[in-house]
Amino acid sequence: MSQFDVVVIGAGPGGYIAAIRAAQLGFKTVCIDAGVNKAGDAPALGGTCLNVGCIPSKALLQSSEHFHAAQHDFAEHGITVGSVKFNAAKMIERKDAIVTKLTGGIKFLFQKNKVESLFGKGSLKGRNGDLWQVEVDDKGNKSVVEAKHVIIATGSVPRPLPLIDIDNVNVLDNEGALNLTAVPKKLGVIGSGVIGLEMGSVWNRLGSEVTILEALPTFLAAADQQIAKEAFKVFTKEQGLAIELGVKINEIKSTKKNVSVSYEVGGETKTETFDKLIVSIGRIPNTEGLNAEAVGLEKDERGFIKVDDECRTNLPNVWAIGDVVRGPMLAHKASDEGVAVAERIAGQKPHLDFNNIPFVIYTDPEIAWVGKTEEQLKAEGVEYKKGTSGFAANGRALGLGKAKGTVKVLACAKTDRILGIHMIGPIVSELVAEGVMSLEFSASSEDIARIVHAHPTLSEVLHEAALAVDKRALHG
């Protein structure tokens, strides 16, 4: 029976990073994962994010943006093209190649850092003295490893919709939505979260008539509502997405040819028939097969593994990170928790502030934020001041042909300390990093206002918004 210092269950963004950091700190480490490639004939590290989530979706978003630009934007640049044709299968092939490269990269990193990799499903069997026994089930071939510490990083799975089963033929989850080889004429999406908006945007740009059905009455309720309202206007009025809010789904029927959805909205009953339907109503923690109940691993009422502020479970030397525990279901949150847990096992004292974790939606324009929204500050009774600036007069944005959007900076009315930064605009997924840095180091709006920002860059809009907090915007 092989013995290790650390066993990691799951090789997604949390698990593989935790394993690498543990090995860097001198621990004999093994990572157990049951992920397989698209063909189903070989192991594939990286979890949902690399295989059927974050990475492949960004590849499709980029391909669809290029197609849309060739059709609608090139002429403005003096570029004339002939008939623009789209090959969905080729787009999927490119996406798959990126996924294969990155999952292979994790295998290389494991070898470089001397992390042992075992294929199969990992589950807790119990303790043998001070060591935890973890069973590895490789399609019925079972083995057991032992370790002093176990890090659970099994991620999440799509939340099921009781009205219909996912078949990934006509009714799709995130994986099915990433593997369509033809453009559906009519596409329905249930849920207007990150997955729904991103996948809806992809296929809308490629020619689908897209309808998004959202149960909540508020669009992007987690985002700052000034930014959310601007996004809603762009997506619906300018890009043609049909987004219905406050929807109650009554019935879904799937046939070989299409899917019909009966729903209520605004007191009216409607029925829509779609060629394909994407179900994206959130994700739930993946604890199936861990043997949690048998070993006494505690979970909360929503199925998340209970942990303290340092990711310790109720079991000695058993840790849990990422989507399977409290906090935002974000790959970068999982990775940073993985690093922190490995360092805590080594006796270090790392710190991770959930208040300073950035959120990004990779639509066009992109949406990104960090810190408190204006609605949260009002609800908490915090006195604040704000500054906004737009991309409409920004030279770099105009040159890119992407001059829509706004940056908002929220700061404490008394101390000027930054409380939140919210953005919609071109490539704000990169701009938000300055906001994260500002919150992490307790910067004031004046700190950003006093920093020289290169010209011409998109970052000047953040600089201008910081100046506007103190009512001294130079271009507003």
Automatic annotation (TrEMBL):
<dbReference type="Pfam" id="PF07992">
    <property type="entry name" value="Pyr_redox_2"/>
</dbReference>
<keyword id="KW-0285">Flavoprotein</keyword>
<feature type="domain" description="FAD/NAD(P)-binding">
    <location>
        <begin position="4"/>
        <end position="338"/>
    </location>
</feature>
<feature type="binding site">
    <location>
        <begin position="191"/>
        <end position="198"/>
    </location>
    <ligand>
        <name>NAD(+)</name>
    </ligand>
</feature>
<dbReference type="InterPro" id="IPR012999">
    <property type="entry name" value="Pyr_OxRdtase_I_AS"/>
</dbReference>
<keyword id="KW-0520">NAD</keyword>
<keyword id="KW-1015">Disulfide bond</keyword>
<feature type="binding site">
    <location>
        <begin position="154"/>
        <end position="156"/>
    </location>
    <ligand>
        <name>FAD</name>
    </ligand>
</feature>
<feature type="domain" description="Pyridine nucleotide-disulphide oxidoreductase dimerisation">
    <location>
        <begin position="357"/>
        <end position="466"/>
    </location>
</feature>
<protein>
    <recommendedName>
        <fullName>Dihydrolipoyl dehydrogenase</fullName>
        <ecNumber>1.8.1.4</ecNumber>
    </recommendedName>
</protein>
<keyword id="KW-0963">Cytoplasm</keyword>
<keyword id="KW-0560">Oxidoreductase</keyword>
<dbReference type="Pfam" id="PF02852">
    <property type="entry name" value="Pyr_redox_dim"/>
</dbReference>
<feature type="binding site">
    <location>
        <position position="122"/>
    </location>
    <ligand>
        <name>FAD</name>
    </ligand>
</feature>
<comment type="similarity">
    <text>Belongs to the class-I pyridine nucleotide-disulfide oxidoreductase family.</text>
</comment>
<feature type="binding site">
    <location>
        <position position="323"/>
    </location>
    <ligand>
        <name>FAD</name>
    </ligand>
</feature>
<feature type="binding site">
    <location>
        <position position="58"/>
    </location>
    <ligand>
        <name>FAD</name>
    </ligand>
</feature>
<feature type="active site" description="Proton acceptor">
    <location>
        <position position="455"/>
    </location>
</feature>
<dbReference type="GO" id="GO:0050660">
    <property type="term" value="F:flavin adenine dinucleotide binding"/>
</dbReference>
<feature type="binding site">
    <location>
        <position position="214"/>
    </location>
    <ligand>
        <name>NAD(+)</name>
    </ligand>
</feature>
<dbReference type="InterPro" id="IPR006258">
    <property type="entry name" value="Lipoamide_DH"/>
</dbReference>
<keyword id="KW-0274">FAD</keyword>
<dbReference type="InterPro" id="IPR001100">
    <property type="entry name" value="Pyr_nuc-diS_OxRdtase"/>
</dbReference>
<dbReference type="GO" id="GO:0005737">
    <property type="term" value="C:cytoplasm"/>
</dbReference>
<dbReference type="InterPro" id="IPR023753">
    <property type="entry name" value="FAD/NAD-binding_dom"/>
</dbReference>
<keyword id="KW-0547">Nucleotide-binding</keyword>
<feature type="binding site">
    <location>
        <position position="282"/>
    </location>
    <ligand>
        <name>NAD(+)</name>
    </ligand>
</feature>
<keyword id="KW-0676">Redox-active center</keyword>
<feature type="binding site">
    <location>
        <begin position="329"/>
        <end position="332"/>
    </location>
    <ligand>
        <name>FAD</name>
    </ligand>
</feature>
<dbReference type="InterPro" id="IPR004099">
    <property type="entry name" value="Pyr_nucl-diS_OxRdtase_dimer"/>
</dbReference>
<dbReference type="GO" id="GO:0006103">
    <property type="term" value="P:2-oxoglutarate metabolic process"/>
</dbReference>
<dbReference type="InterPro" id="IPR036188">
    <property type="entry name" value="FAD/NAD-bd_sf"/>
</dbReference>
<dbReference type="GO" id="GO:0004148">
    <property type="term" value="F:dihydrolipoyl dehydrogenase (NADH) activity"/>
</dbReference>
<feature type="disulfide bond" description="Redox-active">
    <location>
        <begin position="49"/>
        <end position="54"/>
    </location>
</feature>
<dbReference type="InterPro" id="IPR016156">
    <property type="entry name" value="FAD/NAD-linked_Rdtase_dimer_sf"/>
</dbReference>
<dbReference type="InterPro" id="IPR050151">
    <property type="entry name" value="Class-I_Pyr_Nuc-Dis_Oxidored"/>
</dbReference>
